[in-house]
Amino acid sequence: MNGRTILRQYARGRRDFRNADLRNADLVMADLKFVDLSGADLRGADLRGADLEECNLSGADLRGAYLNHANLSFTNLRNADFENADLENADLNNAILDNTNFNYADLEGAKITYGNTDVIIKEAVYND
Q1: CA 101 distance to own-chain centroid
Q2: Where are the domains of the chain?
Q3: CATH 1.10.10.60 holds for 1-128
């Protein structure tokens, strides 16, 4: 499945894309609110500026994906893999981050709500 296909199907009302193969898909600035992409393969996908608010990305593989300025607020990221992903200035407010892998991900400028406080990461965060 490619970026154009998912956007066409989304426009027709489809929201279930579980386990979809979207490796290297071009989804720049895509509006994909409320989509179920659990278990999807999004390695190397270009999601810069995409609106993924309230999506289910649990168990998704986003290694090496580009998510600069993406909206991931209220998104289920449980068990997702963001290794080597670019999340610069991404909005992760109120996202579910249980067991999410951010090893070597670039989170510079990303926003994450912690309690009642917004946290903005001022430099890249790398975990070993």
Answers
A1: 12
A2: 1-128
A3: no
Whole-number Cα distances in Å, 88 to 1, 11, 12, 47, 112: 26, 28, 31, 12, 12
Report the distance separating Cα 72 and Cα 79, nearest Å. Answer: 15
Residues 118 and 100: beta-carbon distance below 8 Å: no
Q: How many CA atoms lie within 13 A of 10 on its CB side?
A: 20
Note the pTM of the prediction, 2 decimals: 0.88
Q: What is the 3-class SS of 91-128, one letter each residue? A: ECCCCECCCCECCCCECCCCEEEECCEEEECCCCCCCC
Q: Are 110 and 86 in contact (CB under 8 A)?
A: no
The model's pLDDT over 106-116, given as tens digits with 9 standing for 90+, comes to 999 999 875 55
Q: Looking at residue 97, what is its pLDDT?
A: 87
